[in-house]
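$ fold --in a.seq
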Amino acid sequence: MLPTTEFALLRRLAAEQAGSRAPSMVAAIVRGGEIRWSGVRGFVGDAAPTADTQYRIGSITKTFIAVLVMRLRDEGKLDLSDLLDKHVPGTSMGHVTIAQLLAHTAGLTSESPGQWWERSPGNDWAALDASMTGDELKHRPGARFHYSNVGYGVLGELVARLRGTTWLAAVNSEILAPLAMSRTTPMPTAPHAQGYAVHPFADILLPEPAPDAKAMAPAGQLWSTLTDLARWVAFIGGDTGEVLHPDTLAEMREPAHVEDGDYWTSGYGLGLQTLRDSGRRIAGHSGSMPGFLATAFIDPVSTTGALALTNTTAGVAMGALTGDLIRLVEEYEPDLPAPWRPMAEYDPEMLALTGLWHWGPSPYVLRLKPGGWLDLAPMADRGRASRFRPNGDGTFTGLDGYYAGEKLRIGRDAQGVVTHLDLATFIFTRTPYDPAAPVPGGVDPEGWR
């Protein structure tokens, strides 16, 4: 990046590390699937940290579990509306759905019963299951968002049962190995940072424990590096390789819950946090464990993302830091749009469909896009717009907004001439309320007057 951009980024990182009294901190900017800038501050032992220094990433672990669950869904091994009891029978939580567990709307208690799991040696699944009595179901499933670490312990067990292996083995074989994330592990491997608590009234440190959480490990066990986590940020932005279809990743980024208010600023999708920040929507996850804080977010539209890792228990505004890093990049070096170029080929029949259509009296414009996609949008600012992807059978599936998932069909007369568009029972005609088209309810025989 430009020297002015790099200095501004380093200045923001340095101010956070010094002002928050963090023992060490590393951060990076990801753009277009690559690290474009990285910075380090502080010390790990007697040396500065590097891009290969491991930090604990806490709840960012949940995003890996969510990807495994979505892979199982895409393979047809489960449905998100399935009750847990279908796949993990006999628990007190069997009445909640897989989707509710992913989105933290299942109503489960936030922490596992007993001692605080993040600082205590973990127990196996049988012990966790036995501890989840009726008292640990805090809300009616689906009623509200209630962040639950337990829910991801449950999802880890779900993955293990459907894969016939451990959740960690599934993460290694299905995600880490294909993405070449070799420095992401369940326990630290050198070089790694020690986690600390910083005394609130003196510049002294207290080492924090990092036990194996076992059954609760899917909620926050993993350690990673700047390099590995940058690859994961690119993944969340849509650079999924062969691990997950980009459409499935986009589905995960869609908010299933949003912060209550007139204008939502934060929400949660299927394993991913979503935020509104300076007019953009970014997705990712934050993480905290005793001695560590982590955050990783990306704007899928611009493919600009930021991540930061530090080895302190509290006191660092990690979300504000990554948000500021993204804003600085967009301000100092806004991404240039790709050059426009004409389509290499097109279907003349599809070209004939383009132009003006009407839903009732409201005019819409249909445009042909590369790959045979269609774009339908109102001529005025008001109305429902969507892109449509061809299905290969003459129909199209909506991808956005109100029409997401709905079918667009081409209506023809007995001679095969196109007469109308049928979109989820809404009839679009070349002229407003064309009497020759099957307009629902018919058209007044006396016509316009």
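$ fold --in b.seq
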Amino acid sequence: MTSSFTALLPTTEHALLHRIAVAQTEGRAPSLVAAVARGGRMVWAGARGDVGSAADTQYRIGSITKPFTAVLVMRLRDEGLLDLDDPLERHLPGTGVGAVTVAQLLGHSGGLAAESPGPWWERAPGGLRPGLPEVLGDRPLVHPPGRRHHYSNPGYTLLGALVAEVRGVPWEEALRGEVLEPLGMERTTSRPVAPYAEGWAVHPWADVLLPEPAEDLGVMAPAGVLWATAADLCRFASFLAGGDDRVLSASSVREMRTAAAPPVAGDWDGGYGLGLQLARRNGRSLAGHSGSLPGFVAGLWFGVEEDVAAVVLANATSGPQAGALAADLVNVVAEAEPPLPGPWRPLAGADHALLALTGPWYWGTYAYGLALLADGGVELRPLRGAGRGSRFRRRPDGGWIGLDGYYDGEVLRVVRREDGSVSHLDLGSFVFTREPYEPGDAVPGGVDEGGWRGAP
């Protein structure tokens, strides 16, 4: 994420502090910390309750571990060591769920059970499940693979095992060397390192506490083992928004933020990408993840367009709604201090052949406009109404590939006559002409010879 300014206004900082103060009191959490990042760095941190450093105190982050595991898998894909459509069996044989693909595991659409059989795995020693057979149990699939989104902790256990198998090193070692160290996340670990918060259960009907165990999750670690600080998670959120070529490119993290599975029934404002939860809150598109383990709740959300990320960490089993609170903090900043648009500047040079293609085009009687973009691409948009439109990037063969919207992945071609003049645009077999149904134009089905006429 980049921005022309980073520091927050005092009024915005007060609004953030007020929001977390209310959440800590009403959520009855022994402590709560929060942080906001903008412009690729942390610009605010606040704390309430019994806590030292707001930015540097470790909390357990539970399922926010999953995006870290997903990043490792995406790195393997980018290196050509696997394909997201590969069945798991190709790289990790003998699991009994080998027909499920890597992409389905990343997006929780593989049909695997939500939890591991046996004692509550988050409160049980990892040694009770020494291997994948104990994690998966006798009925690992509860839905047909690929048919629906069904959140699965065993699915991310399998992805961690996949990383270890393909890399030839333990998941934790791969995570440390490939993600945490390059991003400078020195305070993100599998076991707590002081200063860290103790996990507590708060009595539902009295203001008294009970300590929660902090178990080693064993082979299920890739689904939720990590401890982290608010400062480290701000670094991670900024990376997920913009990419870092030392870890994962901007295009690959954008792919992670793209919906890979349909939302569950009744939650049309949510979805899931490749290791990231997706949400629509207050009219804003957010990506991130929530997390919880006994004694802790955590939330991380970021908005790419708003250039804002927020992290919330608390040490209570059923304390504040950390995910919702993090989304609220993004909204506080975005509403109070919307990002400034970049200044308009003319293009460095004019491609006259391309410039001649700009302006109105017609698909049938629908009017579209083709415009040049500052990055050298083009944009085709309807001139009235919502309609179908996309941005396009030039391909080496002279065509253009759709980047978003209805024509994402489709090819736009300029079709020329024998004399070199432009006949029409071809977009996935749709023909766009300079005039609507002009006689002699390459309109599929032809044009009535009588031309346009008045009422009969």
